[in-house]
Amino acid sequence: MVLPHLSNETLTTWWIGINDTGDTTGNTTITNFTAFWEEEMTSYFKAVELAYSNGLKNHLFINVPPGYRAPASIGNSKAPLLKAHTDLYNMVLAEHVAAFAANHTGAAVLSFNANTWFNTILDNAAEYGFTDITGFCTCADPKGFFWYNSGHPTEKVHQLLAEAIKVQLLNE
Questions:
Q1: Which candidate, 58, 47, 165, 42, places its Cα nearest to that of 96?
Q2: Do 103 and 39 contact (CB within 8 A), yes or no?
Q3: pLDDT tens readout for residues 123-166
Q4: 23: phi > 0 → left, psi -120 to 50 → alpha, else beta; which?
Q5: What angle, rounded to 10 degrees, do the helices at 79-103 and 33-53 form?
Q6: What is the DSSP letter of 130?
Q7: How far is CA 152 from CA 65, 133, 167, in A?
């Protein structure tokens, strides 16, 4: 069932893959990650097709941010593997988004590069008011911290991210 919606005023936003990429670093049964991500995208885009066939014509796809820069990954021997899995996932996602756009010319298909955005903020943390990008603070006021816990950003990061997405949407 799809909730009632005005198709010209509804933006379907897809942000999937963060846990998928993170959970793969310990999986030794997958021998071909390109094939694995292709299979995952087939399932992912079945859901996108279902949304499209139910009148949802405006889609925003957000790729996977650099979880390998989160406190849980810093100094972890699996961080390079997580980066490789994230980069490959994002590449396969971009290919599927492009194919969806090419095959659905009546759809508005947009992308937001969360990976690049997170890296920009982390690389220029002081400019955004962050004084700690490697630790975390699960406290009422994590002022200065980028990370709320070992893998999730603070509310301030989410506010900055929402604003960046809004600016991009208004400019496209």
A1: 42
A2: no
A3: 999 999 999 999 999 999 899 999 999 999 999 999 999 999 99
A4: alpha
A5: 40
A6: -
A7: 11, 12, 23
Burial code (b: 16+ CB inside 10 Å, e: under 16) for 30-54 equals eeebeebbeebbeebbeebeebbee
Residue 62 CA to residue 11 CA, distance in Å, equals 13
Distance of CA 112 to the CA centre of its chain: 8
Burial class from Cβ neighbours inside 10 Å (0-12, 13-18, 19+) for residue 94 reads middle
Average pLDDT of span 86-107: 97
Read off the DSSP letter of residue 8: G
CB contact set of 7 (below 8 Å; sequence gap of 6+)? 55, 56, 57, 58
Residue 157: is it exposed, middle or buried by C-beta count within 10 angstroms (0-12/13-18/19+)? buried
Residue 99, pLDDT > 70, answer: yes
Q: What is the pLDDT of residue 1?
A: 57
End-to-end CA distance of the chain: 30
SS3 letters for 64-113? CCCHHHCCCCCCCCCHHHHHHHHHHHHHHHHHHHHHHHHHCCCCEEEEEC
Which candidate, 159, 52, 26, 32, places its Cα nearest to that of 105?
A: 52
